[in-house]
What does this fold into?
Amino acid sequence: MARIRLDDVCIDLPVFGAHSRSLKNRIISAATGGRLAKEAGVTCVRALSHVNLELRPGDRVGLWGHNGAGKTTLLRVLAGAYAPTHGRVEIEGNVTSLIDLALGMELEATGYENIALRLMMMGRDPRFAQRITEEVETFSGLGEFLDLPIRTYSSGMLMRLAFAISTAVEPEILLMDEWLSVGDEEFVAKAEVRLERLLECTQILVVASHSRELLERRCNRVLRLEHGEVNEAVDGGQLT
Amino acid sequence: MTSRSLAAFADLGESLRKPYLWRGLAWFDIKQRFRRSVLGPLWITLTMAALIAGMGPLYAAIFDLELKTYLPYLALGVIIWGYISTTTMEACNAFIAGAGVIRQTRIPLSSFVLRTVWRNLLVLAFNGVLAVAVVVYAGVPSLAHWLEAVLGLLLLVLASVGAGFLIGVFCTRYRDMQQLIGSLLQLLMFLTPVFWRADQLKQRSVLVDWNPAYYFLEAVRGPLLGADVPAHIYWTAAGIAFALLVAGVALFARYRLRIVYWL
It folds into this structure.
């Protein structure tokens, strides 16, 4: 049973300039009586502020907010990449993140190598990868191109491959940054079907989007993000 | 034990349960380095062979030593030192190199340190061909000596895992460290008995007795050349390896969750 629980979660992102990152400056500031606090002299941006959230199976959650409101940060917390600076995060169930489709892909490596690489990063063992490879082969329709380094691919082909790999594993929790739309007309239709199928077996979906229409159509819960604060939107009419 | 160290051990445990992750990435790194070259990773062996063939006769002449004993000494020294210095240097980038992935998904962070160590062990294996060749040239050591060398190598690997955590975490936070470590290593290469022999010094030097690299070098190289290495060399090497492991894992446990924010 997939479940996500956030208890009073804050995320402070330190912003390092060349200054604060050097040891020399740390030593000098210590020697000149500067205070050696835990993150001395580092500017922090509060990306998420006291977030309480509970997601259960069946939840189709839309994240709504301006640029920089904290949508991507929240997605990264849900993906398990960011540990909270304050508060607690519990995530049960395996997560597929479609935030960055090209995650862990290497331009110099061939299509096949990239399939293997990506599945490794997703924590799948090689035996599993072998089974998936065939499926990715047919779905991406890249044929012999899979033997070539992916730097030779057009951006459309690259997206096809990335999409095919990312969606080959059935997740319990699916995270998306904007609705995916990849490739040419024919592939878009194919991708849409595949995404629908993926959604059917996904217990929790979280999608960040600027499209009100999408959120109203796809989601049964909408969270509004403003300056790192998360509030439940009671109905779609609140979205501005 | 605090929950932080438990979580760090869980991270390490997950890496060990998924060896294909860091082994796969390490092997991929090697392939990547030699992509489009005809000989591929064989270049590792060839480069090292050229270095040894060039330096061996020269230094043997300078030091007025017999080539048959000096060449194997130099070859093993350069190969082992190569492992020590490259692993240390690359540990600086262990987490930084994985930034794209670490920022996007949940992945055991310790696997990036293991990847760095494993990659260098693969390089060491390519050079191992040469090591075996020179050892045979010098006279095949006894089984006991082989075992001692394996023990020495094992201690070296453990030490480099510890150092990998220590340096990896530190260099991610302080980006100056990489330059500093680079220049220190270069200096250390000349101060360590890689090219010269410890017994060439008139008085035993602080450079040898207080040089951690010396103990590992001696623990692996000594027995392979048929020398009876005193036990205290192994004990000291084991002590250093243990200290590095404890310090490295402690630092990793303390700052593991901060690493993603430092990238």
